[in-house]
Write a structure and sequence with these properties.
- It is a single chain.
- This protein has one domain: Peptide deformylase (Peptide Deformylase, Alpha-Beta Complex).
- 39% of the residues lie in helices and 27% in strands.
- A 5-stranded antiparallel sheet has the order 1-2-3-6-7, sandwiched between helices. Strands 4-5 form a two-stranded antiparallel sheet.
- A hairpin with a 2-residue loop joins strand 4 and strand 5.
Length: 191
């Protein structure tokens, strides 16, 4: 099932996520839905807060096309070597910024079967893991870049959300007006 992706400005994206208490069928289904949503949105990673769930879980698929699930992950090691890479985010569509991150990481997590694993990752997969892991702590990639860029981006998304809310209110008012007219017509017919 394709899930709705939260956008910058929604509170869940800034919360520290809670650990997953138990890896059960519900969590496995959520992992499958997250992978499906990520692929549908042309993403390479998706964290649970991005679909409105404040739990410590993310999915990823790098250039090796392996779909991975990380439940209660812990990054236990990062390389001293760093690199810049232009990052984007499904929760901040069409906004990109060059972000500096370690080129290698070691992460421990549970998979969708609840089994623990340790993964050494480099390149794109290492970057995805760090990006999605940040989501679990309420950190967005724009927080790791230029402060002025982050403030401008947040302001843009706030304006977008306000415009969308205003349009929704106008649409609701119009629907109420039409419903009232229809009700008045029906009342005249009954007389």
């Amino acid at each position: 099932m394709i899930l709705n992706i939260t956008k910058l400005g929604e509170e869940v994206l800034r919360q520290k996520a809670e650990p997953v208490a138990e890896v059960n069928d519900e969590i496995r289904q959520l992992a499958n839905d997250m992978l499906e949503t990520m692929v549908d949105a042309d993403g390479v990673g998706l964290a649970a807060p991005q679909i409105g769930k404040s739990i410590r879980m993310f999915v990823a698929m790098a250039d090796d096309d392996v779909k991975r699930v990380f439940i209660n992950p812990q990054i236990i090691k990062t390389s001293e070597e760093v690199a810049d890479y232009e990052e984007g985010c499904l929760s901040i569509p069409q906004v990109y910024e060059s972000i500096t991150r370690p080129v290698r990481v070691t992460v421990q997590a549970l998979n969708e079967k609840g089994r623990p694993f340790t993964l050494d990752a480099d390149g794109l997969l290492a970057r995805i893991i760090q990006h999605e892991y940040d989501h679990l702590d309420g950190i967005l990639y724009i927080d790791r870049g230029d402060k002025a860029f982050a403030e401008k981006t947040e302001a843009q998304f706030k304006k977008r959300a306000e415009r969308a809310a205003e349009k929704a209110r106008e649409k609701e008012a119009k629907a109420r007006k039409i419903a009232a007219k229809l009700a008045a017509k029906e009342a005249k017919k009954v007389k």
